[in-house]
From TrEMBL:
GO terms for biological process: DNA-templated transcription. Belongs to the RNA polymerase subunit omega family. It is an enzyme of class 2 (transferase). This is DNA-directed RNA polymerase subunit omega. It catalyses: RNA(n) + a ribonucleoside 5'-triphosphate = RNA(n+1) + diphosphate. The gene is rpoZ. It comes from the Bacteria. Promotes RNA polymerase assembly. Latches the N- and C-terminal regions of the beta' subunit thereby facilitating its interaction with the beta and alpha subunits. The RNAP catalytic core consists of 2 alpha, 1 beta, 1 beta' and 1 omega subunit. When a sigma factor is associated with the core the holoenzyme is formed, which can initiate transcription. One of its GO terms (cellular component) is DNA-directed RNA polymerase complex. It comes from Buchananella hordeovulneris. Its EC number is 2.7.7.6. One of its GO terms (molecular function) is DNA-directed RNA polymerase activity. Keywords: DNA-directed RNA polymerase, Nucleotidyltransferase, Transcription, Transferase.
Length: 126
């Protein structure tokens, strides 16, 4: 395929109307396609380095095809499964009590014992 026909295919194939039936919104389409295109670009970079951590293109493609065009064709053919990452819900901030409103209840206190009273009690038991 020549460079001009590859570029034209990327513009008109797959049609946007078909792509929008595969995703929830235009925003989702752009997000999914751009993420997959980055993965494809990373795959090609790793391939040159002898690393194989990313999955390469899942559709037939020419060397002239852009990663975004490849990603859009993969989405159109239903070859990708999108799983949404959900961030854990933030932990609620603990409420800090307002210490200015705390009061100390009055206690009925027994009279304090004196040292002499304690000796008298010990002496009575023995």
């Amino acid at each position: 395929m020549s460079a001009s026909s590859a570029a034209q295919r990327g513009i008109i194939d797959p049609p946007i109307d078909e792509l929008l039936t595969k995703v929830d919104s235009k925003y989702a389409l752009v997000t999914y396609a751009s993420r997959r295109a980055r993965q494809i670009n990373t795959y090609h970079q790793q391939l040159e380095q002898g690393m194989f951590e990313m999955v390469g293109p899942l559709v037939e493609h020419d060397a002239e095809d852009k990663a975004l065009s490849i990603a859009l064709r993969e989405i159109n053919e239903g070859l990708l499964r999108v799983t949404e990452r959900r961030e854990p819900a933030p932990m609620p901030m603990p409420t800090i009590p307002d210490f200015s409103s705390i009061t100390v209840p009055e206690f009925d206190r027994a009279p304090e014992a004196t040292f002499g009273d304690a000796e008298a009690d010990f002496g009575a038991d023995s």
